[in-house]
Design a protein that fits this description.
The protein is an alpha/beta fold. Helices cover 26% and strands 24% of the residues.
Length: 568
Amino acid sequence: MSTTGMRRAAVGLTALAVAAFGAVATSPEQADARPKPVDVTLLALNDFHGNLEPPSGSSGTIAGQAAGGVEYLATHLAELRAAAKKKNTITVAAGDLIGASPLLSAAFHDEPTIEALSMAGLDYASVGNHEFDEGAAELLRIQNGGCHPVDGCADGTPYRGAGFKYLSANAFKTATGKPLLAPYAIHKVQGVKVGFIGMTLEGTPQIVSQQGVAGLTFADEADTANRYARELRRKGVETIVVLLHEGGAQASTGGINDCVGMTGPIVDIANRMDPSIDVVVSGHTHQAYNCDINGKLVTSASSFGRLVTDIDLKIDRRSGDVVSAAANNVVVTRDVAKDPKQTALINHYKTVLGPVAGRQVGVTSQAITRSQETLFGTSLGESPLGNLIADAQLAATDDEEGAVAALMNPGGVRADLDAGPVTYEEAFTVQPFANNLVTLDLTGAQLYCVLEQQFVTNRTLYPSSTVGYVVDPNGTTGTVADPCAGTRVVRGSLTLGGTAVDTAATYRVTVNNFLAGGGDGFSALTGGTNQVTGQIDLDAFVAYLTAQSPVSAPTLDRIRTTAEVPAA
């Protein structure tokens, strides 16, 4: 029950006691006789993405400090438990612990990450969208153990499964209507019950390959949380925590423990949640925040294990209600001792991985980042690294399949490239999904529709160097049902290889198989015909880095605005 509801209940009880007995115990001796609340500490993280080693570049810093790495994370967790009462500490996570991971974890189907987090004392985790990257059967194997059905036990040792419990309340098996995994868990601390409900975002099917979510249905987050909150209360649970892989973002002026101008799906979800829900540990957006939304404590610990959210709850021993809740996002600094067990685990997998990770595949003449330039006051423009990847994909298919353009989705670009030598492991970290390239036929009219859909989905497709077009900030945006109705892309401005696109003509375009299947909301690409599946996107990227070295950041001049190119 929320603290507001608890206070109301307490007021009613006091009035009833006065009416019945004429007095209420108020002396210090009588007050001291009341049972003290139970102190419970939640240690929370989210969006770890297999970052066993400290992330490089900007991904390895937060709040002006170098942060992250499971050796340091485990030490910080141990210190936070010691500062609290260990037996009263529960460690939780809000999804995307695996998937889009660096090579050290991904090469072993993220088993190293599950082992590391289990060893670090994780108790419960919600399922994120990336937990579905390899499908429901693989997620169940990750939970329960067993060797991979194709690659076997890649490091030569049995995989025993997760030492923590994945919770998935809103992912249902379509055939039976039953949850894929347990929807919630009840954890007892000194006689009081704490309920944890785990969920991912309802929109998971739009951002995961169709193979990954085959046979599953995803339900509304708030409705699902409320349903299971009622069930928990029927079981005598009054302290309820939701582990939700969905989030929001605050204004850029906010720090890691602020909540400035909070926006995003989490705001609406929290506002629709039942008052009995006390805490929402969120994720997905890779942001840090510490909020009170509709009387609920709502937190997020950014990403990659750079923060741990230290949540302190005081729970009434008699009623089981939350008396107070407070949180603090703590930076996982690297000035503490490394956890020796985590170091041993990392060294084991590095040895098994062998020399392939350190093989040099190219050289960059400068740092090439995935950051997007500003377009219309938002980060919807081009990206140096995104453009480079599109160029690599075109180079891999222009001769083989006659492609004249390539388009890359921003969510598939996962890390920056530093200046200097590029190893295979670094290239893998940039493109870890092992998507196949797909070359398909699109008419000029379909191409315009695909580009208009960018403004419906709020996602920019990074174009190859052969593509150029002009965007009108005053144009209209299409709808989900009819993205082609938009007029943001100036008609007649789209060129391929410097030649204006004919809406009636057909062009060969390369994308990855995720986009070809309508991923990230680009349903217009599913209308492509004569599809030919090519090599893995990482292989194309590595080949391009090798052939073009030293590689420089491409110029960001493929998407221009009417302010730069006045109408004729």
